[in-house]
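Apologies for my clumsy wording, but are you able to produce some protein sequence, whichever is easiest, and the tokens describing how it folds?
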Amino acid sequence: MSSDDAMHLRGASGAQRVELIYDGQPVTVRAGESVAAALFANGIRRLRMSPRGHGPRGMFCLMGSCQECLVMVNGRRALACQTPVRAQLCVDTIDLAEHPGRHE
């Protein structure tokens, strides 16, 4: 199994397709899979920038421990790997470089 395959729910190939908004752009994804998996499947790897060094951050542990996939979901902070996709979800990146010392 490839790492791309591991990012999807088993049996999700027949799942309902829904649209979420990512940084203002519509993205068609499978309902029920995690936001992280859905974005990864659409070629989106960078979810935020590090407050130290300003490097890109994305999915890492995929179980909520590392918090590298922190995003805004409908105006609230959430971990992309722990948030299931549903219709009308609005996901935005967080620029933690603008808030040094508050994270990491």
